[in-house]
Specification:
mainly beta; 24 nucleotide stem-loop, u2 snrnp hairpin iv. U2 a', Chain A; 3 domains; 4 helices; about 425 residues; eight-stranded parallel β-sheet; about 30% strand; 14-stranded parallel β-sheet
């Protein structure tokens, strides 16, 4: 009887051995260099879900990744490099603990197979995939704690399907994609804690897909997208910690940025030869660095800066042959709210020299002894005095200037959003 029981137990154990061997995953990182390696992995670990370490897929004979679709978690990095796959997909993958790199897959036309991917532990790089046409299907991805980088994909036309992406802790860069004409599906993107760059995409025509974007931790650049005609939106953007640069395009319209309060670096809008409408920056109060408005051939005025109260460094307004209205620069200059040098040249009459600009706000005196309430004009001038008990509630700059006396009577009040200056200054 004991021998029969022993035989039965041994038989049961033998039945379990294949199941144990073929259901677990390798104990460490996995390197795959051929299609046969994928076939062998699937044969040895047909239900493997969790890779401990990295998964490296690198080899020109690799044409199909579907046999790896049981994998759900990779504790290290996933690198898909130099394959001959037409599609790149990991349909059941949920988490990558390190970086996700999809680089140099020159036959791949579509990346659409990451519908369940929720997190990447480091950067997401999609680089140098020569025939890649579409990037779609990352709709579950929420956060990237390092870089978001789509670069040098020569045939890429569409980037879409990042509808859940909220934060990129590093840089957000879409750069040098020669055929890219459409960006879609970034409706919930909120924060880039480093740079935000959309640059050197010569076929990109329209940018409108970032309605929730609030904060840039460093430089914001939309530059050298040669066919870009419209920038619409970014009305959630509140501040940039460094420069905001819109440079070098076929841009006709900038419409948005209307909740942007501060640019803590430079604001540059330059080399946009057909730009004719800026319905933007309506609440911009502070430029911490330089203000550069250069070679915008058709543009006629700076009225869109009416809420601006301070420029921390230099002003460079040059080579805008139709620009004739620069009154805001005069107002900031005479109230000592420009911290650097003012360079103005090669614009139209009225904004062609600093002397012309200063003359634009050297208004005649409003009277000898002037009472101001309500406050209607930005500049209020009295030959001898100004008296006011007004409540000033505006996001614009208000100037009181008088030859001898400015008297602010009881009841006079200025709200925090207003840049108010009172100075003894002769009017003419």
């Amino acid at each position: 009887m004991h021998s029969i029981k022993l035989v039965i137990l041994i038989g049961i154990a033998l039945l379990w051995i294949p199941t144990i061997c073929f259901s677990q995953c390798p104990p460490s990182s996995v390197i795959i260099n051929t299609q046969q390696d994928i076939i062998d992995f699937n044969a040895n670990y047909p239900t493997c879900k969790n890779i401990t370490g990295n998964l490296s897929i690198d080899g020109a004979t690799i044409v199909d990744l579907s046999l790896l679709n049981s994998i759900e978690n990779i504790s290290g990095s996933l690198e898909i490099l130099n394959t001959s796959c037409l599609e790149v997909e990991f349909e059941n993958l949920i988490n990558v603990g390190g970086r996700l790199k999809i680089n140099d897959n020159n036959l791949a036309t579509t990346i659409n197979g990451f519908p369940n991917l929720q997190s990447v532990g480091f950067e997401l790089d999609i680089v140098n995939n020569a025939n890649l046409n579409n990037i779609v299907g990352f709709n579950s991805l929420i956060d990237i704690p390092s870089r978001f980088f789509i670069d040098n994909n020569a045939s890429l036309e569409l980037v879409s399907g990042f509808n859940s992406l909220n934060n990129v802790v590093g840089q957000f860069i879409i750069r040098n994609n020669a055929q890219l004409d459409s960006l879609k599906g970034f409706q919930n993107f909120t924060v880039a804690l480093n740079d935000f760059w959309i640059i050197l995409n010569p076929e990109l025509v329209y940018i409108s897909e970032f309605p929730s974007f609030q904060t840039v931790g460093d430089v914001f650049q939309i530059k050298f997208n040669n066919k870009l005609e419209n920038i619409v939106g970014f009305n959630g953007l509140l501040s940039t910690s460094n420069n905001l640069e819109i440079v070098g395009s076929a841009l006709k319209v900038i419409d948005g940025f209307n909740n942007l309060v501060s640019v803590n670096g430079d604001l540059e809008i330059s080399f946009n030869p057909v730009l004719n409408s800026i319905n933007a920056f309506g609440n911009l109060n502070t430029i911490g660095g330089d203000f550069d408005f250069i070679a915008n051939t058709l543009y006629t005025d700076l009225l869109w800066l009416s809420s601006l109260n301070f420029i921390g460094r230099d002003v460079n307004i040059n080579s805008n042959p139709n620009l004739s209205i620069c009154d805001i620069i005069c107002l900031l200059n005479i109230t000592n709210n420009i911290g650097g040098i003012i360079n103005i040249s090669n614009n139209s009459t009225g904004c062609n020299t600093l002397q012309e600009v200063n003359a634009s706000c050297a208004n005649p005196c409003d009277g000898i002894n002037v009472y101001v309430n309500p406050v209607i004009d930005n500049i209020n001038s009295g030959e001898i005095s100004i008296i006011s008990d007004a409540i000033i509630n505006t996001s614009q700059s208000i100037l009181f200037e008088a030859g001898n006396l400015i008297n602010l009577d009881p009841g006079f009040e200025v709200t925090a959003s207003t840049n108010f200056t009172a100075q003894i200054w002769p009017c003419y």
